[in-house]
Design goal:
With about 850 residues, the chain is α+β, with helices and mostly antiparallel strands. It contains 24 helices and 27 strands. Strands 14, 18, 22, 23, 24, 25, 26 and 27 form an 8-stranded mixed sheet that branches. Strands 6-11-10-9-7-8 form a 6-stranded mixed sheet, with helices on one face. Strands 2-1-3-4-5 form a 5-stranded antiparallel sheet. Strand 23 and strand 24 form a beta hairpin. The longest helix has 18 residues. The two termini are about 40 Å apart.
Length: about 850
């Protein structure tokens, strides 16, 4: 861009300071302030050169981006922040550091922050920058108006006092524990008057069953003291007492954890740690006084921390315990976990290993920055380019002599340098701006996050087609599946294409001691019996729910067995045969009609287990099996075939096309909309009424095809095998029929899941590839694409649930070496755990 002319710049390119100072205003609450990080890089006040905050836009930029900011905003006055750290002189060097007692950061009982031993020296100046991006003059800032005009001082003070707009309570919440809710049994808790009293002396406590003195739980209703579960060293006397008393008394408290500040309560009926607002009263019933008690036993959080730590050290996934060589240089940049963001870090490390992503967001970065919108921090493309540039450099690596000295002075060998940290906070917020779940600070499922990122990238590519280097990279990962349906009544077969798939979801079956011929060839079994094995779940296969103990050998299953299980047909109940018009069953299976350039494979490591007999309802449990995925993969067995010799095609069920009610169309056209828009609105709302149609057309007035005639023929099968009653239930939540059908198909007809599916895609329901599919419609048939792939990397999960625990990423570099990205820790890996991946990425060769 050429140097701008500005009313604040004089003929000799010097700044008219008086006019510039007079133009400065105090940021209002509606103004976003970015005062902790550059909007185009990860430069911050600790970085060499500090951070410059433009006092017109209130956006921070590093010194390298001052010329660009001048071209973009043409305002010359900045707040220059330079921060340095030094060891506190009065640091309590000999004070012992207590072990953490809760999953929390920077709070009492949690993991303590390093800043408690460090002083931060902040130097603030107000600088005048010329149109060439070079400083012309500086004014030291001390908060007074002795040197600078009053309005400038007020503006700077406000900027310094404001919290950076990328930070929020959700993202930076101190606690990493799950929320503990009030027990529904607490308010009206039954407490027996059996004359029993518990002494306020822990040495007199003992399990009434075994005599154990540790891991004791007091039943708040009966006064019974029993030991805890076997995995925590108990005899399970406490839960056995709950069972023996008819499950009427569910609340127990761990005796050794009762203190004036806290108490641990568990509800067997609710299967969770809970709180009790009347706990003092309930303890007093048994003679216990919290003021006289102190902690004598490990609480559940401490036990959990120990278990996680042991698992982490011994884990095959992280390679702890093995000699690990730190990897540095271009392409080896780690990402800071700034509050349950390991899923995000692993996702972007994997995505930016794809050459097209690097090219799109690194090579075109400077042009993207120049053309970035007024708020670069909220722009997805800008923030992806910002992160991609950092990941493909070594700017944020290395250690200065000053930082080495600080570590020695504070005796903190693991102290991180804030000038060498990459925290993609702005990107997180930009991607999640329309998704409440990803906007928060809780752990997320990496697979769901990848899908959301892809939706954001695809939407951005469509909305801003003139962006430099713009292309919808998500199409590189898309494939079409061929769905085969066998009508059990007529034995006829139907084939249908499901385009726009991103993940190949693969179950992990139990290892088989021996495999029958039918098990080896599910298609053969289908032809012989016409009744393939029923698929139990789309989210998991049957499996053992037992957790593998530390050091125990995991069950192993080969990837071919996983693919064979995926190919097995599952049963459709209540299927209306197009031939007989009678309800019955059908068998459905799926193969790949096309193979993508890049293939995402999700191993279905989580399953829903029925534990109602144990009083725990349905629980999500992790499948802990090794599924050995190869470096070089051939998926020819997954290729579609189309109609085979000897098969008879099912007739397509032609349904009468609904007609728009004329009175509803008139109501819409009277508002100034076209006839076609009126017809679309009436049909989309199922002729519910004029008000609903008008509301619909107002929401969709910007749709590209709003005024186009409705075309016949593209969705003849849209309503096939979708229960009309379920469609009505979903549509009653405010969704149109087309979206309701799409959601029910995506969730196997589960109404609750379909509604969640739609809400999670609000504003994106029409952002699919339907228009592109119409241009190049894929028909059922034989897949002739090359089936050979090579692995690029994979994401692994540590923990019990996809929305908790920890994610790491392994990437195979061009030099043949494997690298482990564990947040900010990047190391070479000799033995990557290929059998324990959750999400794999392969490249077609």
């Amino acid at each position: 861009l050429p140097l701008p002319s500005s009313p604040l710049t004089m003929a000799d390119n010097t700044v008219d300071e008086k006019a510039a100072f007079e133009a400065i205003k105090v940021p209002s609450q509606s103004n976003k302030v970015y005062n902790r990080e550059c909007v185009f890089s990860f430069q911050n006040p600790y970085s060499p050169g500090g951070l410059y905050v433009n006092l017109k836009t209130f956006q921070g930029v590093g010194p390298d981006f001052l010329p660009l900011d001048q071209k973009r905003n043409r305002f010359p006055i900045y707040l220059h922040q330079q921060w340095k750290r030094k060891a506190k002189k009065d640091a309590e060097e000999d004070k012992p550091t207590n072990a953490p007692t809760k999953f929390a950061i920077g709070v009492e009982g949690g993991f303590q922050l390093d800043d408690q031993k460090i002083d931060i020296i902040k130097i603030n100046t107000v600088v005048v920058v010329g149109p060439d991006g070079k400083k012309q003059k500086s004014y030291p800032f001390d908060g007074s108006d002795k040197v600078l005009p009053k309005n400038v001082v007020q503006s700077v003070n406000s900027v310094l006092a404001r919290t950076d707009s990328t930070e929020s309570k959700d993202i930076f919440a101190g606690s990493l524990e799950e929320e503990v809710k009030e027990s529904k049994f607490a308010k009206d808790l039954v407490q027996l008057d059996n004359g029993k009293k518990i002494p306020n002396d822990h040495e007199k406590w003992a399990c009434e069953d075994s005599g154990l003195k540790k891991n004791l739980w007091l039943n708040l209703s009966t006064g019974y003291i029993g030991s805890g579960r076997k995995e925590t060293g108990g005899t399970e006397a406490a839960i056995k007492h709950y069972e023996d008393t008819g499950r009427k008394y569910p609340l127990v408290v761990k005796l050794g954890t009762i203190t004036p500040e806290k108490v641990e309560i568990y509800s067997y009926a609710e299967n969770a740690m809970v709180s009790d607002a009347l706990i003092d009263k309930h303890l007093a019933h048994w003679g216990l006084d919290r003021k006289k008690l102190f902690q004598t036993d490990k609480d559940m959080t401490q036990l959990s921390i120990e278990a996680q730590s042991k698992a982490f050290e011994a884990s095959l996934i992280t390679g702890e315990g093995e000699k690990q060589e730190v990897a540095t240089g271009v392409g080896y940049q780690g990402l800071v976990n700034f509050g349950n963001t390991c899923y995000l870090n692993s996702t972007f490390q994997l995505l930016f290993s794809v050459p097209e992503f690097k090219k799109r967001y690194v090579e075109f970065a400077s042009r993207v920055f120049e053309r970035s919108p007024s708020d670069p921090a909220a722009d997805i493309t800008t923030q992806l380019s910002k992160l991609a540039t950092a990941l493909n450099s070594d700017k944020y690596q290395g250690e200065t002599d000053e930082h080495k000295k600080l570590k020695e002075d504070t005796k903190l060998p693991e102290l991180s340098d804030p000038a060498a940290e990459v925290k993609p906070k702005m990107l997180k917020k930009a991607v999640a701006r329309d998704h409440w779940e990803f906007s928060g600070g809780r752990q997320q499922d990496a697979q769901e996050y990848i899908l959301h990122v892809f939706q954001a990238i695809s939407r951005d590519a469509k909305q801003f087609p003139s962006t430099p280097g713009n292309s919808d990279l998500t199409k590189l990962f898309e494939f079409a599946s061929e769905e085969k349906t066998v009508d059990a009544q007529s034995k006829q077969v139907g084939y249908k294409i499901q385009p726009g798939q991103t993940f190949l979801q693969v179950p992990i079956p139990k290892p088989q001691q021996s495999t029958s011929k039918k098990e080896e060839d599910p298609e053969a079994a289908q032809k012989e019996s016409g009744e393939p094995k029923e698929k139990k779940s789309k989210t998991a296969s049957s499996s053992s729910s037992a957790t593998v103990a530390a050091g125990a050998k995991m069950e192993t299953v080969e990837y071919e067995a996983c693919f064979k299980r995926m190919l097995e047909a599952y049963t459709l109940q209540g299927y209306t045969s197009p031939v007989t018009q009678q309800k019955g069953v059908a068998y459905r299976s799926s193969r790949m009609r096309t193979f993508p350039q890049y293939l995402f494979i999700q191993m279905l490591r989580f399953e829903q287990v029925d534990m109602t007999k144990e009083g725990k309802g349905y629980q999500i449990q992790k499948i802990r099996r090794m599924a050995n995925m190869p470096v070089e993969l051939d998926i020819k067995m997954l290729a579609s075939t189309g109609l085979q010799k000897g098969e008879t095609a099912l007739p397509k069920a032609k349904k009468a096309k609904p007609q728009a009610k004329p009175e509803i169309v008139v109501a819409v056209t009277s508002m100034g909309f076209s006839q076609n828009a009126g017809i679309r609105a009436a049909l989309a709302t199922q002729n519910a009424g004029a008000e609903q149609a008008v509301n619909w057309v107002l929401m969709h007035s910007q749709d590209a095809d709003i005024n186009d005639p409705i075309q016949d023929g593209d969705d003849d099968d849209e309503e096939e095998e979708v229960d009309a009653g379920k469609v009505s239930q979903v549509a009653a939540m405010g969704f149109n029929q087309k979206h309701a059908i799409k959601a029910l198909k995506a969730t196997d007809g589960d109404v609750a899941r379909a509604i969640d599916w739609l809400f999670s895609r609000a504003g994106q329901l029409d952002d699919d590839s339907s228009s592109e599919q119409k241009k190049k419609k894929i028909e059922p048939g034989q897949n002739t694409d090359s089936p050979k792939y090579k692995i690029m990397g994979f994401i692994s999960h540590i923990g019990d649930r996809a929305t908790s625990g920890h994610y790491v990423c392994h990437i195979l570099k061009d030099n043949g070496k494997w690298v482990l990205y564990n947040d900010n820790k990047v190391t070479y890996c000799e033995k990557p755990p290929l059998g324990l991946g959750y999400i794999y990425l392969y490249r077609r060769v």
